[in-house]
Amino acid sequence: MDIINNPSRSEWAQLLARPVADNTQIISTVQSVLDDVRMRGDEAVREYELRFDKASLTNLQVSDREIAEAEVLISEELKAAIATAIGNITKFHEAQLHYPPIIETTKGVKCWQKVVAIDKVGLYIPGGTAPLFSTVLMLAVPAKIAGCKEIVLCTPPNAEGKVNPAILYAASKAGANKIYKIGGVQAIAAMAYGTESVPKVYKIFGPGNPYVTTAKQIVSVKDVAIDMPAGPSEVAIIADSTQKPEIIAADMLSQAEHGTTSQSIVFTTDAELATHIKDEALRQCEASPRKEFISKSLENSRIFVLDNMEDVIDMSNEYAPEHLIISCKDYAAVGAQITNAGSVFLGHFTPESAGDYASGTNHTLPTSGYAKAYSGVNMDSFVKKITFQEITSEGLGNISRTIEVMAENESLFAHKYAVTVRKVH
Amino acid sequence: MDIINNPSRSEWAQLLARPVADNTQIISTVQSVLDDVRMRGDEAVREYELRFDKASLTNLQVSDREIAEAEVLISEELKAAIATAIGNITKFHEAQLHYPPIIETTKGVKCWQKVVAIDKVGLYIPGGTAPLFSTVLMLAVPAKIAGCKEIVLCTPPNAEGKVNPAILYAASKAGANKIYKIGGVQAIAAMAYGTESVPKVYKIFGPGNPYVTTAKQIVSVKDVAIDMPAGPSEVAIIADSTQKPEIIAADMLSQAEHGTTSQSIVFTTDAELATHIKDEALRQCEASPRKEFISKSLENSRIFVLDNMEDVIDMSNEYAPEHLIISCKDYAAVGAQITNAGSVFLGHFTPESAGDYASGTNHTLPTSGYAKAYSGVNMDSFVKKITFQEITSEGLGNISRTIEVMAENESLFAHKYAVTVRKVH
């Protein structure tokens, strides 16, 4: 974890570069699994489940009984927490619904957008040691609010063919209506192409390992929409001495624990604070049961000490962090100048983990600088906006000359004629 | 152009399949041009301009003098038409701007979305015989309204190194602020990676030939966002005997003239009307100066005669057309049931060409069935929605237990500690 003092602007891009994820080694493996599932459907899915998850499955779909069993296994404390999270996520996402007005652009020419849910969506939830039931909520709750009819969820089973009960419980509470015991590339393939038991969906959401991410990239080119390109998680923190180094370090570590490719960046104008943060981060790392793991990911972390707040803001916007914690005195004024970030956490009592679980905002966010062009998952992600126009005879008269002149100048004469023929009749 | 009577639902997918565009032959060519421009910048761009557009260029950027010259070359009639179109496009797109409210999801927990323009966008406008200045308006006008700071436009020059004056005039009126004489894959590469003269942008918009489309697909995987995947243009028409066959046929031809891979589909319950439409389309094709061209693309066209309006609507939603003209008596009721389409044209006086040029809606729309998951270009395409949250000490107290329990159950202990450490202080 380096402390870097006042780098020149020409050095910023290099200093802010993310650890590069090279997937060229795995593309052919991913492609072959995709092709195989496309050709052979469920039979291929079952073979890959046996090979990769050691699970021998007859039914790929989770049964109602399994969902009922999961409910028994979940503590009341966790049920209450999930209910609170669902409540806040629902409030925030429902408020995003917006029905644009009908606009009469010229007399007799009415135009509007109709907001329609994507009919079939697929949610991928990774397995592994940490069951990401919070991601289930972040994807299924807005899909349900949008009105998606088919909300398909795939997640890998364990070797006994069972899905983590917290995932099943969250999925059923949030409104996923078809849950499958399928993980990895075979899950992405099943949802992209459809199989005997898994419906083909129109858009796939959710995080995953490099194989899953590569599979999503490949299917997104021609077959199905995806939420966004995915990279390792990251946090940037803009801090001054009004926040305690211990808290800033804790925020860094809460990112570092995600994986060895995660990045935690601090921007500050206070050199002394920078030293304290570093000491504190190393101390907390030392005390952590996951010390070896976190110390490795802290190697990707950097503390930038800059001359003034203008540089701090510009450098943060250049980095375009997935998460941005603004823990300084003038946090509102600083926040107002942020133009590139996935989600922003304002003030001293707003840790990133609030947004990860329960504030109500979505935690599926653009990484790797994609925040320069992408939004995080929000209600727009689950709908299409179809434009409509209705023109009266008078309205067509009002714009017909414009259309005819433009069509003629683009040498599109049949376009012109489609107007002319309507005027004659 | 076949008339197909009452196909069974199991046959629909096959009958509605688009002509397949196979780009495997050109991927390696496209990749090599992309790599070369990435490595060698302007020098490579100039070489490809000489090779592909026969243009020997010193300055890649269009000068102010060239823009002023273009203005002189444009007729007053076309200037007036462009002004009307800009006015309507502006009215419709401005009305889409929406600033979501601040939501207090729990007492002391405030969440909101901040809408921010994408800083740098790149617009690609194809060259060729028909100068698509209307596409310039459809992309630059909303980019300007959104507040994008850098609106870069690339379009191929002719062999004299000149850009079509209508494109230059439209670009300057609509607000593109950097215009380059670069076409094809080298244009996509220049905007995706940046060169000495072309700024790297964060999102690329616009249509193109299979080379350009493939280049956009490749750069979208890791380097830059794109508007949407692109395929050949298409129209579907839902019609009954209240609309004249001559007009329906004219609408089919206005699509057919785009290119030999374009598709025009009609859905109707009236077998007699179907025959009249076919006769009329062949008659108009015969009379057209572009007969050979249009007759070829009409080969992709089909007229489906179905038993009832329910099948008509379902089949149209299954096709998910880029453009959908609803020219029947109950057009409003039918329109209300449309769930998959790019843009819908309601009633007897609403030709597709109205939306192509001047109604105010955007003509950059999802083709190839992508309308099942994608919207056409709209104001959302030029902005990001950054989520913000601000939590008070009391607010954190209200949700801290929820966060801690969920983090613990996901085995993310540092996430939990980032909350706990704030409560202690």
What does the oligomeric state look like here? homodimer
Gyration radius of chain A, rounded: 25 Å
| Coarse structural class of chain A | alpha/beta
Total DSSP E strands of chain A: 14
The order of strands across the largest sheet of chain A is: 1-11-10-9-12-13
N→C terminal distance of chain A: 76 Å
**Stretches of chain A where pLDDT falls below 50 for ≥5 residues?**
none
Q: State the helical fraction of chain A.
A: 40-55%
- Shape of chain A from CA axes? globular
Number of helices of chain A: 17
Mean pLDDT of chain A: 95
Greatest chain-chain contact:
A-B, 126 and 125 residues
The major sheet of chain A is characterized as:
6 strands, parallel
> Beta fraction of the residues of chain A?
15-25%
Question: How would you briefly describe this protein structure?
Answer:
The structure is a homodimer of 425-residue chains. Chain A is α/β, with parallel strands linked by helices. The first copy, chain A, has helices at residues 9-15, 27-40, 42-53, 64-73, 76-94, 133-146, 165-174, 184-193, 210-222, 245-256, 271-287, 291-298, 309-319, 331-336, 352-357, 393-409, 413-424; strands spanning 2-5, 103-106, 109-117, 120-124, 150-155, 178-181, 203-205, 225-226, 234-239, 263-268, 302-305, 323-327, 343-346, 383-391.
What features would you describe in this structure?
Two copies of one chain form a homodimer. Chain A is α/β, with parallel strands linked by helices. The first copy, chain A, is built from 17 helices and 14 strands. The first copy, chain A, has helices spanning 9-15, 27-40, 42-53, 64-73, 76-94, 133-146, 165-174, 184-193, 210-222, 245-256, 271-287, 291-298, 309-319, 331-336, 352-357, 393-409, 413-424; strands spanning 2-5, 103-106, 109-117, 120-124, 150-155, 178-181, 203-205, 225-226, 234-239, 263-268, 302-305, 323-327, 343-346, 383-391. In chain A, helix 10 (245-256) links the parallel strand 9 and strand 10. In chain A, helix 3 runs antiparallel to helix 8 and helix 5 crosses helix 6 (133-146). The first copy, chain A, is globular and about 85 Å long. The mean pLDDT of chain A is 95. The interface between A and B is large, with 126 and 125 residues. Strand 14 (383-391) of chain A pairs parallel with strand 13 (343-346) of chain B, so a sheet runs across the interface.
